[in-house]
Amino acid sequence: MFELNNLQTTGTTVIFNITYPTKIYVDDDMDGQTIYAAIEGDSAVKKWTKGASEGLQVGGECFYCMGVSVDKEKNVYMSSPGRSCVYKWSPQTNITTMAAGQENYPGMESEHLDAPEGIYVDGNSGTVYIADFSNNRIQKWEKDAHNGTTVAGLSTGEGGSDHESLARPSSVWVDDETHVVYVADSANERIQRWLYNASMGDTIAGGSGTGDKLTQFDQPIDLKFDNDGNLYVCDRLNHRVLMFKLINNEPCSPTSTPTSTPTSTTTSTGSSSFHKMTMAMVTFSILIWIIM
């Protein structure tokens, strides 16, 4: 855990002795902070309540577990690339059900997934957005649906590096109000933004090839936003987390493309919460990396 207002601070270990953790979800509510971790080595999702020294497994096996998210009813969603599906565990019933895909049946048809990784759950509607890694697309799976809809990338599962395509997407984040989709497009070394119902995305970070410069990534595998609209990217093979600070938040047309400028001194001109923004041009500036 790092204090974001003190960039010189050292991290505090809050979870330890876990084998190959891949994703985390932090749930802050009136009952205190709970951390959920997808743990590849244990093929499971475990949760830690505040102050706990040991994690408790939630749900059943999640083979090669690569993603975790939680909705407002505390249902836990977990993605299993090894089973080509997303599971949903209910704390009320202690029953695990299928939320997306067909267990042990990978494919590129709309009812299938192939090695799903990062997931994002709309806490209000229960809609699940899935980084369908081997199908090079983001699938939107509404609650109780039997198939998904492609909202980023090509529905045919073909990968590519143009603005219509993705290549090995590993993580997805969605603005619940505007339904804008953000993707860690890992094989293309970039973060893509897809406006609602858009047929192509635009690059908001990276896209300058593989490397360790502040404008480059080497396998970006996860992304998150804070309430001020700042973007955090886990840059896997560069062993760092990059923060892109929001410096402009203006209305935009569907053809506008945000830019990233490598600098460590910036001023944010957007005053509203990122979660409450309507369609906006998001201009980022790289602030600093947190982990080396």
From TrEMBL:
Keywords: Glycoprotein, Repeat, Signal. Pfam families: NHL (PF01436). Gene3D superfamilies: TolB, C-terminal domain (2.120.10.30). InterPro entries: 6-blade_b-propeller_TolB-like (IPR011042), NHL_repeat (IPR001258). NHL repeats lie at residues 107-144. Residues 253-272 have a biased composition (Low complexity). PROSITE patterns: NHL. Residues 252-272 are annotated as: Disordered. PANTHER family: PEPTIDYL-GLYCINE ALPHA-AMIDATING MONOOXYGENASE. This is Uncharacterized protein.
